[in-house]
């Protein structure tokens, strides 16, 4: 009996987030299903894409991420369908161009505050785990933070028509009470993707509930 190949899952961080956060959310759920997680250290959009290109080797890989990371991973999969074996996505924030999406507006506003008053001023309204994560990640971006926030706010996500072309098992997590990542976007992505399973959660369950995208991906594989 031949051994079941180990799947590599490459996950990208959201806007101004980092690999530390992604690994903290997804490492345990992925280990439970026997997959190998890869969380590249990236800052810009081009670095996110390059990380996927470098990770894609002889066999198709599973890709995904949180928010902007989900956008970049799905966009790469649209362009490389034969190199993508599946998608693990959390909190997609818009379809196509941002056009006033809450996450894009938040990124632009944060960029303006950071540029004018610094990181700590931009984080003044946050608390708990979110403040802890953003404090570490945003300071880690250094001088790249404002350009990255601005770049992310203007970046395109896949269109729903493009998502319909991705016939791979997909797990998605959406949040019913997250105003920055409207659950309607996650539902639209799940409806467009031919083999998607959507799990919905709440802000009270953050951040580890995002890892439920792994279980959703496994369910999508069973339904193939």
UniProtKB/TrEMBL annotation:
- Give the domain of life: Bacteria
Q: What is this protein called?
A: Serine aminopeptidase S33 domain-containing protein
- Species in which this protein is naturally found: Lentzea guizhouensis
One Pfam family this sequence matches: Hydrolase_4
Record-linked Gene3D superfamilies: alpha/beta hydrolase
- The chain positions of domain Serine aminopeptidase S33 read 46-115
Q: Which InterPro entries match?
A: AB_hydrolase_fold (IPR029058), Hydrolase_4 (IPR022742)
């Amino acid at each position: 009996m031949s051994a079941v190949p180990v799947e590599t899952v490459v996950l990208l961080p959201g806007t101004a987030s980092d690999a530390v956060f992604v690994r903290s959310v997804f490492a345990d759920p992925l280990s439970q299903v026997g997959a190998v997680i890869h969380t590249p250290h990236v800052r810009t959009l081009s670095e996110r894409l390059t990380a996927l290109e470098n990770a894609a080797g002889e066999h198709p890989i599973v890709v995904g991420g949180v928010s902007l990371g989900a956008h970049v991973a799905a966009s790469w999969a649209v362009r490389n369908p034969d190199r993508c074996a599946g998608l693990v996505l959390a909190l997609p924030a818009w379809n196509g161009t941002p056009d006033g999406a809450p996450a894009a507006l938040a990124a632009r506003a944060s960029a303006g505050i950071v540029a004018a008053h610094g990181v700590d001023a931009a984080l003044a309204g946050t608390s708990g785990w979110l403040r802890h994560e953003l404090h570490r990640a945003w300071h880690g971006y250094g001088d790249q933070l404002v350009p990255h926030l601005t770049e992310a706010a203007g970046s395109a996500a896949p269109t729903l028509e493009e998502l319909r072309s991705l016939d791979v098992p997909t797990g998605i997590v959406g949040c019913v009470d997250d105003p920055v990542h409207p659950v309607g976007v996650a539902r639209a992505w799940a409806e467009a993707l031919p083999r998607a399973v959507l799990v919905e959660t709440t802000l009270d369950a953050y951040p580890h509930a995002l890892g439920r995208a792994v279980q959703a991906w496994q369910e999508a594989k069973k339904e193939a």
